[in-house]
Amino acid sequence: MFRFPFSLRNAPAWFFGLCLSANTLSANAENYATYPEVKSFIKEMVRKHKFSEPALTAVFAEVQKQQSILDAMNRPVERVMEWRDYRKIFMTEQRIGGGKKFLQDNQATLAKAEARWGVPPEIVTAILGVETRYGEVRGNYRLVESLSTLAFDYPRRGAFFKGELEQLLLLSREQGFEPLAMKGSYAGAMGYGQFMPSSYRHFALDFDGDGRADLLDNVEDAIGSIAHYFAKHGWQKGEGVAWQVYPKKTPTSAQLPGKQKPVQTVAELASLGLDTRGLGGKTRVRLIAEEGEAGREYWLARHNFYVITRYNHSDMYALAVHELSEAIRKP
After folding, report:
1. What average pLDDT does the structure give for the chain?
2. Using CA of residue 254, residue 242, residue 237, residue 313, what is the dihedral sign?
3. Scanning 1, 124, 162, 220, which has the fewest C-beta atoms within 10 Å of its C-beta?
4. Is the pLDDT of residue 198 over 60?
5. Confidence band, pLDDT 50/70/90 cuts, at residue 10
6. Are 213 and 205 a contacting pair, CB within 8 Å?
7. Active-site residues: which are they?
């Protein structure tokens, strides 16, 4: 059966309200319970995970396609902005000051995470600063509605979001969350660190020892889980992230690889006369170009930069995290 934290015999009033809504809205073509694809999805959830078909039908009867979500997916900020504009969003006095305060207020927890996984406090803090302004802006979309819209009305990535919808329902059952009450971003991310449901289930930790891994409202669990996520993706303790460089001649397209994993060696870029911070010739790096305030900027990135892009697959995102972390680290 669908394992909400109650049996049908002692179900709370909201569950029966959902059932009544399912009957009332069944004729409404806008609600997802009427979609053939959703009906198939529900049956698959029953077969694979022993959910209750009536309970899931009641949930999807309360969920409708949201055009605003589809519009937002078609204009992500990383695609329409250059680095000079993207940077301005995050490198503000408010966000830097907020990061310094967050470092101070959560010093013990951040130090504990660094001791365990080697991820610096300023990197974890910068992730939280970029994602949710240190927990202030966590998203106000109903997650089941976001993910349903993207799973069933966004064909380009429908398979991915259908998988995340499955993970969300499993997560709600495991954590005892009411599915329709869970809120987050238009793309289905949630909590302080904006974890997708699959990442939540794989990387979330009960870092404060209260018996529950709560990334929605528990900042200690969020800090530990972000550091854990980075460690699992190969964070190298003590290694730098990236630094701006000034080539003596214009790099060729071959010297600016599109793939994010560092595959170039310092020796292969020697002709550009870059500041390599004394790294050996065999050290793997990646040269990045972005349009800055004063023209084209070049950055030399190491493996830890790549790790940040596992959180969000955007070079500008990783640069923003790096620059914000440097700013909040300074006294």
Report:
1. 91
2. negative
3. 1
4. yes
5. very low
6. yes
7. 131
C-beta separation of 308 from 286 below 8 A? no
Phi, psi of 202 (to 5 degrees): -90, -30
How do residues 130-173 score in pLDDT, each as one tens digit? 999 999 999 999 999 999 999 999 999 999 999 999 999 999 99
Dmax of the chain from CA atoms? 74
- Residue for token pair 């964070």: 235
Structure tokens at 26: 């069944």
DSSP state letters, 48-98:
HH---HHHHHHHHTT-B--HHHHHHHTS-HHHH--HHHHHHHHSSHHHHHH
d(CA 244, CA 230): 23
Question: Cα torsion at 215, 70, 66, 38 (round to 10°)?
Answer: -80
Question: Are 183 and 215 a contacting pair, CB within 8 Å?
Answer: no
Amino acid at 60: F
Could you tell me the two tokens for 25?
């809205």
Rounded to 5 degrees, φ, ψ at 260 are -85, -20
The whole-angstrom separation of Cα 112 and Cα 107 is 9
pTM of the model: 0.88
The whole-number pLDDT of residue 259 equals 87
**Alpha carbon 315 to chain centroid, angstroms:** 15
Q: What is the DSSP string of 133-181?
A: TTTT----EEHHHHHHHHHHH-GGGHHHHHHHHHHHHHHHHHHT--GGG
Element holding 289 (H helix, E strand): strand 284-292
Contact between 240 and 301 under an 8 Å Cβ cutoff? The reply is no
Give 21-54 pLDDT, tens digit per residue.
444 343 344 799 999 999 999 999 999 999 999 9
Contact call for residues 128 and 227 (beta carbons, < 8 A): no
The residues, any chain, with a CB within 8 Å of residue 311's CB and separated by 6 or more, are: 127, 229, 230, 317, 321
